[in-house]
């Protein structure tokens, strides 16, 4: 981040690249790349080629502070400009043969909506006897102009690029300086030969790393259906709208026993079923997002064909009714008071005081301004003040003003508070368009093949750089599965797709996301609401629970009894399995760490006797052997007979005569220079029952008990 003391706002730093590419993604230089003549200092006339790039800028203001140029051997000069009201202002100009670094940009130049960004690369064919193409190898050429910029953080866009060839008419006005080469010393030329290959490699490696990082994010984030939600049937009609109230409860807007059919409207969009009267059921339900229990119901005898719904900071409902052709502000206190009505009931129109089947409403929480998508008949977004005063309206946007495609049913709206933007699901065009809420200026368009030609609804989450959640619909022209999408607002990449497990979407009509990351989809076709949450969360909880249980069981076993040596490998295998498998998620790490830290001392207590026993066994066996030998030599009491019996019997005889009565304390005390103190408690039998219970404790038993003897046959 870069802070600007002058403006007093935090700024977001990133880069913009102007590149020359062919339509298939490979670089090329075709017309309008122009051949011209430059006059060098020697007055020799050389033929050169200009590669021109230009794009209309359609986002929030950026402030360039550094630039970098890049070509291969034939590039002589690269220049970047901002064009505003026909005037060309230099951003930066440099020889691509100089060290590949970012150089200071013209600090007096900024770029805002409506400007054009343009760049020119000048090439010569010196030393070449064959054609040179724009491409990725060192024998090909490139034309790149990179801009490092900062912008207001809440409108931050991490990366932008421009790869459109500029028109000949536009570049006829480019300043003459863009065609004048910058002299470079031979020393710089030689040093750049190796540096250029390194720079190209770094650029390619950066792209690969970005793709890998994106793949990791794709793997870690996935939404799956919560099949047990709701716990009981909600008895819904066609679900047309979803919202969240200030308590994060789910608000459902449905049509009860009314249906939108082929006979609902005539050719002038007038509602034909007024005789049915308003919907008698409660059309607005407040539902517990965890259990799916209805907390509150309202909206009886008010609506004919509900469509969109949202809430404001005072918890009022803003709804649209396509039969009424109205936008209504309704109280949420259960008294069903209409606080504000926009439009004339049952009267379609296209002026500032009428709507034609309006679809959705979005509210700016700071100003209270409301935005209306209008609708099935009209193709516009209208803006009103909080008290219903008409402010402005606009249609579809486009980065190419010459090819602006009008809205075809602007069906869903979402307001982006941190960016002060309004985004629209342009249903029949299969795209999402975003605009500056204050001015209606076009910001960006998201259109994907995966949408299948239709986008029904969208919502927004400020997570990370911003996520857009969307659902598509069936298209008569293209076939694509009905599903939900999680889209990175900044990169416009699809991060995840999701759909129900047990039954498919029929007509997903609206979508909302809660603060805890749960996603709800209202389906008008199946008259139901689906709940989704991250699969990673559920799976990690189950894994952690199982493995923590295994850990606790193992620790309890080690504490109560020390295993014989030949069984320790199995315990070690269990420990190794746990160390590999136990990977707690971030939200569980504190709890897991607490359990581990509590278990650690107990584990050490359990392993300590095994270590002590192992260390004592070797000298103990040696002492026993010496004792047996002494007994046999001096007292002649050791009688081992080689009778035809099992080895267990032989060992039993030895144990009975030589080992059974041997006490280390007595043995050491019987020899000069040794004291009995400290040895009376430790015998070769190792039985806790043989000890002096009055002088022993549980901790002593655990730490100093020897291995039990083998039973005789």
UniProtKB/TrEMBL annotation:
<keyword id="KW-1015">Disulfide bond</keyword>
<dbReference type="Pfam" id="PF03712">
    <property type="entry name" value="Cu2_monoox_C"/>
</dbReference>
<dbReference type="GO" id="GO:0046872">
    <property type="term" value="F:metal ion binding"/>
</dbReference>
<dbReference type="InterPro" id="IPR001258">
    <property type="entry name" value="NHL_repeat"/>
</dbReference>
<feature type="region of interest" description="Disordered">
    <location>
        <begin position="678"/>
        <end position="713"/>
    </location>
</feature>
<dbReference type="GO" id="GO:0004504">
    <property type="term" value="F:peptidylglycine monooxygenase activity"/>
</dbReference>
<feature type="repeat" description="NHL">
    <location>
        <begin position="492"/>
        <end position="535"/>
    </location>
</feature>
<feature type="region of interest" description="Disordered">
    <location>
        <begin position="575"/>
        <end position="601"/>
    </location>
</feature>
<feature type="binding site">
    <location>
        <position position="509"/>
    </location>
    <ligand>
        <name>Zn(2+)</name>
    </ligand>
</feature>
<dbReference type="Pfam" id="PF01436">
    <property type="entry name" value="NHL"/>
</dbReference>
<feature type="transmembrane region" description="Helical">
    <location>
        <begin position="607"/>
        <end position="632"/>
    </location>
</feature>
<feature type="disulfide bond">
    <location>
        <begin position="423"/>
        <end position="434"/>
    </location>
</feature>
<keyword id="KW-0106">Calcium</keyword>
<dbReference type="InterPro" id="IPR011042">
    <property type="entry name" value="6-blade_b-propeller_TolB-like"/>
</dbReference>
<dbReference type="InterPro" id="IPR000720">
    <property type="entry name" value="PHM/PAL"/>
</dbReference>
<feature type="binding site">
    <location>
        <position position="255"/>
    </location>
    <ligand>
        <name>a protein</name>
    </ligand>
</feature>
<feature type="domain" description="Copper type II ascorbate-dependent monooxygenase C-terminal">
    <location>
        <begin position="47"/>
        <end position="172"/>
    </location>
</feature>
<keyword id="KW-0325">Glycoprotein</keyword>
<keyword id="KW-0862">Zinc</keyword>
<feature type="binding site">
    <location>
        <position position="142"/>
    </location>
    <ligand>
        <name>Cu(2+) 1</name>
    </ligand>
</feature>
<keyword id="KW-0472">Membrane</keyword>
<feature type="binding site">
    <location>
        <position position="242"/>
    </location>
    <ligand>
        <name>Cu(2+) 2</name>
    </ligand>
</feature>
<feature type="disulfide bond">
    <location>
        <begin position="356"/>
        <end position="377"/>
    </location>
</feature>
<dbReference type="InterPro" id="IPR024548">
    <property type="entry name" value="Cu2_monoox_C"/>
</dbReference>
<keyword id="KW-0186">Copper</keyword>
<feature type="binding site">
    <location>
        <position position="307"/>
    </location>
    <ligand>
        <name>Zn(2+)</name>
    </ligand>
</feature>
<keyword id="KW-0479">Metal-binding</keyword>
<dbReference type="GO" id="GO:0016020">
    <property type="term" value="C:membrane"/>
</dbReference>
<keyword id="KW-0812">Transmembrane</keyword>
<dbReference type="GO" id="GO:0006518">
    <property type="term" value="P:peptide metabolic process"/>
</dbReference>
<keyword id="KW-0503">Monooxygenase</keyword>
<feature type="binding site">
    <location>
        <position position="411"/>
    </location>
    <ligand>
        <name>Zn(2+)</name>
    </ligand>
</feature>
<keyword id="KW-1133">Transmembrane helix</keyword>
<protein>
    <submittedName>
        <fullName>Peptidyl-glycine alpha-amidating monooxygenase isoform X2</fullName>
    </submittedName>
</protein>
<feature type="binding site">
    <location>
        <position position="427"/>
    </location>
    <ligand>
        <name>a protein</name>
    </ligand>
</feature>
<keyword id="KW-0456">Lyase</keyword>
<dbReference type="InterPro" id="IPR014784">
    <property type="entry name" value="Cu2_ascorb_mOase-like_C"/>
</dbReference>
<feature type="repeat" description="NHL">
    <location>
        <begin position="298"/>
        <end position="333"/>
    </location>
</feature>
<feature type="binding site">
    <location>
        <position position="510"/>
    </location>
    <ligand>
        <name>Ca(2+)</name>
    </ligand>
</feature>
<feature type="binding site">
    <location>
        <position position="376"/>
    </location>
    <ligand>
        <name>a protein</name>
    </ligand>
</feature>
<feature type="disulfide bond">
    <location>
        <begin position="55"/>
        <end position="162"/>
    </location>
</feature>
<keyword id="KW-0677">Repeat</keyword>
